[in-house]
Amino acid sequence: MVDPAAPRQQKPLTGRVPPQAVRRRDFPALPAEVLQRYASIDDLTATASDAMDKLGLAGVVPASELAPQLPAARLVGQAVTVRNTERPDAVGAAAQEGKSRMGEHEAYNLAEPGNVVVIEGLADVSNLGGQSATVAHRAGCAGAIVDGGFRDPRVSRGLGFPIWSRGITPITGKWRLQTAEINGRVRIAGVSVEAGDLVLADECGVAFIPYAQAQSVLQEMERIQAGDHRQQRDIAAGVDLQTLASTKYK
Hints:
Layout: H1 32-39, H2 44-55, E1 60-62, E2 67-68, E3 75-86, H3 91-97, H4 104-110, E4 116-120, H5 130-138, E5 143-150, H6 153-159, E6 163-168, E7 177-182, E8 186-188, E9 191-193, E10 198-202, E11 205-209, H7 214-236, H8 241-246
Parallel strand pairs: 3-4, 4-5, 5-6
Antiparallel strand pairs: 1-11, 2-6, 3-7, 3-10, 8-9, 10-11
């Protein structure tokens, strides 16, 4: 029998980025029961936003900034992170050289099933294309959050692989960006995200919850949802507006 407390064997790196660019090989996994409780919240990111306000935490990005490409999709999973930067060489020279410096595949290699790829990227160019989405999906990643562009939406949609991004583009990132870090700190729409932090996403937007706060945010979200359900039952039962207005539900 495998001891769940035993350290996981480290996966060999693919070489897509220098070894020193990989800040963490792994991170503690949140209990499956915690993730399941998050997934059972009805209004996922809206409830997370209210809970984080209560706790004085910032980390919610609206869909107007990071739009879902599969509107009905929802995500609950821990982040594997990728930080991309602009290549210093000219696009033509890079294309002639023919050597891509994109290294997001290393994140897929290190990911555990259910993890979410979180990419700090470049706007208007692709930080994740169809082949990349296919590999991420094959690795068991639940989806991707891209602060930047992506391309080949037909492929990711066909896989049912949900992506939240700043937009779709035909322009490749191969000759325009380079991956600087894997599983380090990234900034997504102004929010600092570490590898292992919890990612929630739905049609309203994205919420990033620090790993250390996952339990407290969950408890507050469940309290808020319980109040919402009580209010919904009172509305359905025909409780008068004066009583509804004067009742504290959450």
